[in-house]
Amino acid sequence: MSASAQSSSNVKQVVPFFRITDMDRSLRFYVDGLGFTLKNKWVVDNQLRWCWLELGGAALMLQTFANDGHHGSAPSTGKLGEGVSLEFQCQDAVALYREFISRGLAASEPQVGNSMWVTSLSDPDGYRLGFESLTDAPEDTKLSDLKS
After folding, report:
1. Pairing between strand 128-134 and 116-122?
2. Using one digit for the tens of pLDDT, what is the confidence trace for 76-118?
């Protein structure tokens, strides 16, 4: 077996790993707001420091910055999440949009781009999350356009 074939059969999944500033705030957003489920966790001194979250077939990890050691403190310059975007492929992004806003989240109005309904929002540390689903609706159609 070639090294390339061995590597491709060995790699199973990529899971985004977000460094965050406040675990409680992030869990409220991801679990209570978006509907993720907490699957694994690492607790230090009775504080949840790292967790693995899942929503459908998607997963991500969150970890708070430590004050010292190899987990280090938050960067002193720039904003966390700046330039980072995850795009979740979904069955029905419009239904998710309705769920998110019913839970008090500030999701963008769904709009068609690249033949997909797209709604997006940012987490408490500025990581952008997009939820997309295929559609036959014309490009640039907004959800509110369909209600008129």
Report:
1. antiparallel
2. 566 888 889 999 999 999 999 999 999 999 999 999 999 999 9
Query: Topology of domain 13-68+80-146, per CATH?
Result: 2,3-Dihydroxybiphenyl 1,2-Dioxygenase; domain 1 (3.10.180)
- What one-character DSSP code corresponds to residue 65? P
Which of 129, 10, 119 minimizes the C-alpha distance to 62? 129
Kindly provide the b/e burial profile for residues 11-29, where b requires at least 16 CB atoms within 10 angstroms of the residue's own CB.
eeeeeeebbbeebeebbeb
Q: At 147, which helix (H) or strand (E)?
A: none
Q: Which residues contact 129 (CB under 8 A, 6 or more apart)?
A: 34, 85, 86, 88, 120, 121, 122, 123
Q: Considering the entire predicted model, what is its pTM?
A: 0.86
The token duo for 118 is: 């797209």
Please tell me the distance from the alpha carbon of residue 96 to that of residue 102, in angstroms, as a whole number: 10
Tokens 């689903």 appear where?
A: 133
